């Protein structure tokens, strides 16, 4: 607790791995992740029971599965958080290559689970969404390219990252998965900005993305339906957005009471995409604000620690991971309150889903590794040496 209040001490040479890890890790961010996971299990006890009964399964079947996935995810996060930036980069690039190959295979062996988008692979009775695992690998790859371009005589890494981003965005849009495509593009824009891109170029790319959305509206019925539903002046109360909006209004400040909510019986995705509606109805605005505070704490603390980082890869990749983590949560909650069109995006560490929680753990473990306090890792030390 003393270190959580007064700061983390830098690592000392010769320390054992675990004491060094504990001394250098951002304990506040780690505690917030554990808090989000605990809230996910709490909400899963309410949100997943109706689905289990509908599928003739034990009442807490999905909660038990989420707990098992979560235990594995926390182990993965801890392992990644002990790595060096070089190890994060290497595993990230390898992970990107594997996820990229799986995405290429989706049109052949993928499934849509009746949702109109081929995003999943069915493996041994469970499903895997490759795009969830692609995101942290993509951030590591582009950060590597951008950091290499800053070296004297380095390759045109920023251009390489642009090509990689274009390919990934197109592949995701063809599934179609415009939500993940937008998140990937946002992560690249943030990293490019940190790497020193001119604002005019970033604005140009954003304009091209808007133009692409205009053409997607005319070419994809799936995309057009979601945009039309969002722009409609009236909400159909029989749609998921209608149920979620009503649940949030009914919850008020303190909620209707634990187990007293009704939206979980109407929403087919109450345990995944719209779990924040369950939280708002049963626990009220207080629970929602607590969840938002946990996400904000992780993002803000990570960015503040990265301001002191002198390793270009760690700074660029950490910023991409932190911002994409926060924006994914923002998109999920924004959809539930109808501030954004429906995206089909999970709430990290809170929504049910093996792919989601494990991929989030990989990204968060990498972020915790990149924000650890390392010897000679702060710009202040470099400035003092130059005097």
UniProtKB/TrEMBL annotation:
It comes from the Bacteria. Pathway: Cell wall biogenesis; peptidoglycan biosynthesis. Its EC number is 2.4.99.28. GO terms for cellular component: cell division site; plasma membrane. The chain crosses the membrane at residues 28-47, 67-84, 91-110, 159-176, 183-216, 283-304, 316-337, 349-370. Its main location: membrane. It is an enzyme of class 2 (transferase). GO terms for molecular function: lipid-linked peptidoglycan transporter activity; peptidoglycan glycosyltransferase activity. InterPro entries: FtsW, FtsW/RodA. Pfam families: FTSW_RODA_SPOVE (PF01098). Keywords: Cell cycle, Cell division, Cell membrane, Cell shape, Cell wall biogenesis/degradation, Glycosyltransferase, Membrane, Peptidoglycan synthesis, Transferase, Transmembrane, Transmembrane helix. It catalyses: [GlcNAc-(1->4)-Mur2Ac(oyl-L-Ala-gamma-D-Glu-L-Lys-D-Ala-D-Ala)](n)-di-trans,octa-cis-undecaprenyl diphosphate + beta-D-GlcNAc-(1->4)-Mur2Ac(oyl-L-Ala-gamma-D-Glu-L-Lys-D-Ala-D-Ala)-di-trans,octa-cis-undecaprenyl diphosphate = [GlcNAc-(1->4)-Mur2Ac(oyl-L-Ala-gamma-D-Glu-L-Lys-D-Ala-D-Ala)](n+1)-di-trans,octa-cis-undecaprenyl diphosphate + di-trans,octa-cis-undecaprenyl diphosphate + H(+). One of its GO terms (biological process) is cell division. Belongs to the SEDS family. FtsW subfamily. This is Probable peptidoglycan glycosyltransferase FtsW. It comes from Paracoccus alkanivorans.
């Amino acid at each position: 607790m003393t270190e959580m209040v007064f700061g983390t001490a830098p690592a000392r040479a010769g320390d054992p791995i675990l004491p060094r890890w504990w001394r250098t890790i951002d304990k506040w961010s780690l505690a917030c992740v554990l808090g989000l996971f605990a809230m996910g299990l709490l909400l899963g006890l309410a949100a997943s029971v109706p689905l289990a009964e509908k599928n003739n399964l034990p009442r807490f079947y999905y909660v038990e599965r989420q707990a098992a996935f979560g235990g594995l995810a926390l182990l993965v996060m801890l392992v990644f958080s002990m790595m060096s930036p070089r190890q994060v980069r290497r595993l990230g690039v390898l992970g990107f290559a594997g996820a990229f190959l799986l995405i290429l295979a989706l049109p052949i062996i993928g499934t849509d689970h009746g949702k109109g988008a081929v995003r999943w692979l069915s493996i041994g009775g469970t499903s895997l969404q490759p795009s969830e695992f692609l995101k942290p690998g993509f951030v590591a790859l582009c950060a590597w390219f951008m950091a290499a371009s800053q070296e004297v005589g380095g390759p045109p890494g920023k251009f390489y990252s642009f090509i990689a981003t274009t390919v990934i965005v197109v592949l995701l849009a063809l599934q179609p998965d415009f939500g993940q495509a937008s998140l990937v593009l946002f992560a690249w824009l943030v990293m490019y900005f940190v790497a020193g891109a001119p604002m005019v170029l970033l604005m140009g790319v954003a304009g091209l993305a808007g133009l692409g959305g205009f053409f997607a509206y005319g070419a994809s019925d799936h995309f057009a339906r979601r945009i039309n539903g969002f722009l409609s002046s009236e909400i159909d109360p029989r749609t998921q957005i209608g149920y979620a909006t009503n649940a949030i209004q009914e919850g008020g400040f303190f909620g209707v009471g634990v187990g007293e909510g009704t939206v979980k019986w109407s929403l087919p995705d109450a345990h995944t995409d719209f779990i924040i509606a369950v939280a708002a109805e049963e626990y009220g605005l207080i629970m929602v604000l607590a969840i938002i505070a946990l996400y904000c704490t992780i993002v803000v603390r990570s960015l503040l620690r990265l301001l002191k980082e002198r390793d270009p890869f760690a700074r660029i990749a950490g910023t991409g991971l932190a911002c994409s983590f926060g924006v994914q949560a923002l998109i999920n909650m924004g959809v539930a309150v109808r501030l954004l069109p429906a995206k089909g995006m999970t709430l990290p560490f809170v929504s049910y889903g093996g792919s989601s929680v494990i991929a989030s753990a990989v990204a968060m473990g990498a972020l915790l590794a990149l924000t650890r306090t390392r010897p000679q890792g702060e710009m202040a030390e470099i400035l003092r040496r130059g005097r």
